[in-house]
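Note to self: keep these together.
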Amino acid sequence: MSRQVNVKVDAGKSTGVQEHLWRYIGYDECNYTYIPEGVELLEKFAALEDAPYYFRTHFMFCTGNCHGTYKFGSTNVYWENELGEPVYDFTYYDYIIDTFLRTGNKPFVELGFMPMDLADTNYLRPAAGNWEKYGQYKEAGWTCPPKDYDKWHAFIKAVAAHLVEKYGEEEVKSWYFELWNEPDIFYWSGTAAEYCKLYDYTEHAVHEVLPGLRLSGPAVTGIFEGGHAQKFFRFFLNHCRDGANFCTQEKGTRLDFITFHVKGGGFPFEMHAPKAVPSVESLVHQVKLGLDIITEYGYQDREVVLSEADPDGWAAGGIYDNANMIFRNTEYYATYIASAYDKIDRLGSQYGIRIRPLAWAFMFPGERCFEGTRTFTTQGIDKAVFNMFKIYGSLGDEKLAFASDGTKTLEFLQEPEIGVKNHSRYTGEGEDTEVAGFAVRGKNGEIQIVIYSHCNDRDKEETQEISLTVEGIGEKEAAVSHYRIDSAHSNAYAEWIKQGRPLFPSGEQYDAIKKKDGLEKLCADKTVMAQGCLRLDFCMPSHAVSYLVIQ
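Structure:
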C-alpha cells in the first residue's frame, strides 16, 4: 500500500525563529550522573552543535549510600547532629553538578526530595512506627513535608548560597530550578496547600540569596479534564496569583516559569501483555489542557517546561516487564519524538507561549543489550532516538516556510474522547500515517529539511511516496545530502537482531552493532542544477525521519 504526499519548502520565505526546544533531558537516578557510563552519555549530548543541554534528576536531597539504583538516589546533603542542628555536606551534590558542567551541559535543578532528618514522620502510615529503620525512609519517608519549615528555609538558602559561591551568580542564573516532582501523586505525602507552603518558603529562600534565580513548580502529572492533577495545578496557580503567602503573609508568590508533565500512555508490568502503543495525540492534548489553565490564570507570559514529556510513564521498565516497550529500541521512538515535539512547537506558536519538552530518558548501567528501557543508549550503543537528537542538534534557528499535505492539523485537540487514548490497551490500529516536518536555514546558509512519517500503530506498513519541492534557491548548483532514520538506517537495533540478539555482545559482534549506531545517509550525496526550484522524489515507510541538507 502506498500514497502520494507533497511537501513544499520556500527557502526564500523566513517564518520566524526555530526554537531549539528539545535541549532538556532527565532521569531518576542522580548518582548515575558521574559514573563512567553517565559521563559518556553526557559528553555525547555536549558534543551536539546546539549544546548545552539541561539535565534534571530526582533524589538530589535524599539520604542513603550515594550509590545509584533503579528509581532512587541520594547525596546526604543534609543531616542533623546529636543536638538536632543541621549539617550540610555538599560532597556528592557537587559531584553531580560538577559533572553536568564539566561535560559541557547545564543543571535543571530539582529541589527534592526530603532528607531523612528533616522529614515529618507524622505523615507516614503508620505514623513514626519503625522510623529507626532506614527502609521506611527509603520507601516513603522522602515524600514527607518537613518537620520544621524554618529549617527547610535555612537549608534551601544554604543550597542556593553554596551554588552561588561555587559557580557564580551569572552561571546559576542561567540554570533552571524546580520544586519537587509530581506532588499530586505518591511523591508528596502532604496536601496541595502544604506543597504551596513548601513552595513559598523555597521561593523566599532562593530569592533572598539570588533574586535572578529562576524557580518553578508544580511539576504535576498529566492534566486530564477533571483529574486530580488538574485540580492541583489550578490550586497552585491560584495560590501563586492570589493566595496568602505562607512565608511572608503577603498576597501571592513569585513564579518564574511553570512546569507540568505529559505522557502518551502507560504500560504496567504485564509479562504477556496484549498489543498496546502510546498516543502522540493524547500527549499533545494534555499540553493543550495545561496551556488553557495557564492562560486562564494570566501566566501566558511565562516559559513552560514540560519537565517530563514522554511516550509513556515507566522509564526503568523494559521488554521483560511488558513486551510493548519494544518501541523504545526501534525507529518508532524517534518518529514519536519528532511528531510530538513538532506538534508541541506548533501549539506553542498558536498560544504565544514558549514550551520546552524534557525527555525523561538516560541510560542504565549493567542492563541487557536493548533491554527496552527508556534510554538513549544501551551498553554504550546509540539508539535510533538519539540519532533524532543528532539531527536536532545540527539545525539552525531561522525557520523557513514548510507545507505538507500529509500534516495533521491541530483540530484533533477538540475531539472530546482524545484523552481516552492514554491507557494500556490503545493500539492505534486503523489510524493514518502522518507525514509532516519543518525546515530551517543552517548556520552556514544551507537549507535543512526534517520530514517525519509516524503512525501510532507500530505495525503499520505503508509506503509514502514523497514529492519534495524546494523553492527560492535561484539558478545554481545544489549539493544534496539525505540522512535517514528507519528500520534499516541509523538503527543499531536492526543490526543487533542480525547478530542474534546477544544480551552482552562483545568483540566483533559488538563492533558490528556499534558501527550502525550513527546517523546514516539514505543514498550518496548528489549535485543537481536548480532552476529556481528543486524537486526531489523518495519513499518513506510509516515510521521514518528524512533529514535533507541542501548546500
